[in-house]
Amino acid sequence: MRFAVPLVSVLLAVSASLAAPAVSLESRQIGNLACNVARGQIVAALNKSGKNLKNVDTSTDPAAAGAVTTAQTGLKAAGDGIKTIALSIITGQASPAGSRDQVANGIQSATDALTALQSTDPNVETTLQSLADATAAGQKVVATCK
């Protein structure tokens, strides 16, 4: 008898939750496994790009300093776009197309700045590779997250 009241309460709560209208997973943009893996890959690649970028030697080359600053601005823009998309997913809203463009443009801006540098610093090449990984992951997101 002492478990009857809690048991009835649990059963009522479960019944109420089952009777409530379910929100479509598609409308919440949760995504399938491949989609979520791609989302994780782009975030990881952008984080790696930012870490690699910090290792680029800018102490003796003003052009390198300018390119790194431009690349950092691009990475920040891409990150801000991802934050907007993530907030949309969490709140069940449609992701703004402009945010997807912001991510792509930020990655491209960072890539262009470092490519134009034509540096022999291995950290530039490492950063460019992680930016290429971010681009590939972004393409996977577009292809798999419907």
Summarize the SSE layout with pairings:
Layout: H1 4-19, H2 33-54, H3 62-91, H4 97-117, H5 122-144
Helix pairs in contact: 2-3, 2-5, 3-4, 4-5
Give an account of the 3D structure.
- Keywords: Signal.
- Residues 1-19 form the signal peptide.
- This protein has five helices and no strands.
- With 146 residues, the chain is mainly α.
- The protein has one domain (30-144): Butyryl-CoA Dehydrogenase, subunit A, domain 3 (Up-down Bundle).
- Helix 2 (33-54) packs antiparallel against helix 3 (62-91) and helix 4 (97-117) packs antiparallel against helix 5 (122-144).
- The longest helix has 30 residues, at 62-91.
- The chain is elongated, with a radius of gyration of 22 Å.
